[in-house]
Amino acid sequence: MSLPPLSPEQLVKPSHFELRMSLIFATLFVSQGTHLPYFPLWLEAKGFHAEQIAVILAAPMFLRVVTTPMLTALADRAKDRANVYIALVAATMIISAGYFLPATYAGVLAVSLLLSIPWTPHSPMADSLALSGVRRFGSNYTAMRKWGSISYFCANVVGGFILAATGPQAVPAIIFVALAAALVAGFWAPRMGRPRKASPLSATDIQHSAPSLLNAYFVYFTLGVGIITASHAFLYGFVSIYWKSIGISDSIVGLLWAWGVISEVCMFLFFNRIFASASVVRVMVIAGIGSIVRWIAFPLVWPLGLGIAGFFGVQTLHSVSVAMVLIGLQKMIGETVSEERTGAAQGIAYFFNGFFMAAVTLASGPLYDRLGVDGFLAMIPIAIVGLVLIGLAARSAPQRPVGG
Questions:
Q1: Does residue 225 sit in the same domain as residue 334?
Q2: Where do runs of H (alpha helix) occur along 187-323?
């Protein structure tokens, strides 16, 4: 599939392109690094019970799997994606101020639903801008994207210390200020014009390419990835609440989340040295087994007297249960999906991940309410289902790239 030609303006590299994109990534991940670990603590502090927390967390996930591809497709048709990015960040910041209003269940749920619409596309749109620079000017994507991981890590750690001093009521303020910083950085985003290829999650690309991708191997594999990923829903929704319930301080909670990020980054750094010869199926089997071990271990750490050190040990498995899933998915797409259909492949995988994560998050509230930390045990059969699907994928693996 031939790409449209670049305009004369698009042939000129924007000044300080890598620095500007690094700043975009650094600022957009601070709010996310605060929301994931600490927003459930804020909800609990506002008096919501586990089932209400699960609904508030899950409902936006169902919504965003529909709205995000639409918005990225809109951005692809705009004069410049940077302008759409700025508008979405501004809308996200304004809507997030709704958390400063009296925290009724209906009000917080409404704000969370509205917030998910402009917030979720931030990362794929930033990726799209950065990848345009990679294609046109040979920029180094990882050198720019690493600042997102660094800021996410810092948000985990610093957020924990802030909450230790102020309590969970600071969470909405941290998110609002972080989004304000992202908005300021957004005005410095490089202007790249219209993309020559659709954004990774664009609805247009998915609609065009999906029929040729829906073969047994691709469907089984992406379903397996989505379900193994969804087995982490209980962790993301309720582990901070659990840690606080057994007396672990906010600062240590932040460090535990940050340790998971460090483990993930280490796997990205050393994967090729350790697993270079491993097939994608073997990678995913290891990831699935790592998930199962993680969910078995979590309820045992505190009763066995392993203490905080035990939780750091379990968090190290983030390198296997999360990082290897991400790597395995990209490795599968790179090996079996033709280049012009990779965006659609990413979009379909995003849909499966988002849908199953939302469904398991919704179920996690009642599980935590009734079982507490033993709710992790319910994640084991979910991960096993994911492994079975990976096994079915292995039986139907293609001998040539699909979608070509």
A1: yes
A2: 203-213, 216-230, 233-245, 250-275, 280-301, 307-316, 318
Residue 195 φ/ψ, nearest 5 degrees: -75, 150
Helices (H) and strands (E) in the chain, counts: 17, 0
**Which ranges of the chain have pLDDT less than 70?**
1-12, 195-213, 338-344, 398-404
Inside any domain, residue 198:
no
For 327, the domain range is: 208-398
> Looking at the structure, do residues 186 and 219 belong to the same domain, yes or no?
no
Residue 115 token pair: 């917030």
Q: How far is CA 91 from CA 30, 60, 83, 303, 388, in A?
A: 17, 16, 12, 45, 42
Backbone angles phi, psi at 337, to 5 degrees: -115, 130
Q: What is the pLDDT of residues 136-163, one digit of tens each?
A: 878 888 788 889 989 999 999 999 999 9
Q: Which residues contact 235 (CB under 8 A, 6 or more apart)?
A: 298, 376, 379
Boundary of a domain, candidates 190, 221, 243:
190
Give the whole-angstrom CA distance, residue 317 versus residue 157.
19
Residue 145, pLDDT score: 86
Element at 338 (helix H, strand E): none
Taking Cα atoms as reference points, which of 209, 168, 68, 40 lies closest to residue 125?
Answer: 68
Residue 376 has what DSSP assignment?
G
C-alpha 396, offset from chain centre: 28
Query: What tokens appear for 65 in the block?
Result: 């799997």
Find residue 337's DSSP bridge partners. 402
For the chain, what is the domain count? 2
